[in-house]
Amino acid sequence: DFRAKHDLVDAQGHLISDDQMLKVNEQLSVARARTAELNARAASARSINVNSVLGGTLPEEINSNTMSDLRAQYATLKQEADRAAVRLGPRHPELQALNAQLAGARDRIAAELSRIASSLQVDLKRSIQVQQDLSSQLAQMKVRSGDVNSDLVSMRELERDAAAKRSVYE
User: What is the residue-level pLDDT of the chain in tens, covering all 170 positions?
Assistant: First the structure.
C-alpha cells in the first residue's frame, strides 16, 4: 500500500523514476550538443556576405541547391557582362542591362543568405527552448527524487517492522 500510495514503482530492482531521470539527462546532453552545433552554424551563416559567396567560400551551412543555382546564374551573367564590356562601351544599353541583371542576381543571393541565416536562427531558438524544457524537467525530477528517497527510508522502516513482526509471529 505504501509503495502504491507514494508511487514507488520499481522494475528490475531500479526505480522507474531513476530510469526516467537518466533518460532525460541523456536527452539533455544531446540537446546541449545540438544547441552548440546550431549556434556555431548560425554564427557562421551570419558572418558570410555576398562577396564571400561569390568568391567561392561556401560553408556547408549555406550550401544548398538554391544557392548553387544562384551562384551559377551569377557566374554566367558575369561572363556575359565581361565579354560585353570588352566589345561595347560602358554606356551601351546591352551592357547596362547585363549589369542590372548582375545586381539582381547579387540581391537574390543576399536574400537567400538572409533566409538561410533566419532559418538557422529559428532552429537555434527551438533547440534552446528544448534544452531549457529538459533542464526544467530534470530539475523537477531531482526534487522528486529527494522526496522518493525519504519515502524509501520510510518504506524500508516499514519493511523492517513487518519483518520483525513476521519473525515474532513465526
Answer: 666 565 555 545 556 567 788 898 999 999 999 999 989 888 888 878 787 777 776 666 667 778 888 888 888 998 888 888 888 877 888 888 888 999 998 899 889 888 888 988 999 999 999 999 999 988 888 777 766 666 667 777 877 888 888 888 88
Distance CA 170, CA 165 (A): 9
Q: What distance in Å separates the CA atoms of residue 131 and residue 129, rounded to the nearest whole number?
A: 5
pTM of the model: 0.66
Listed in sequence order, the residues at least 6 apart from 106 whose beta carbon sits closer than 8 Å to its beta carbon are: 50, 54, 74
Residue with cell 522494475: 11
Q: How large is the C-alpha radius of gyration of the chain?
A: 32
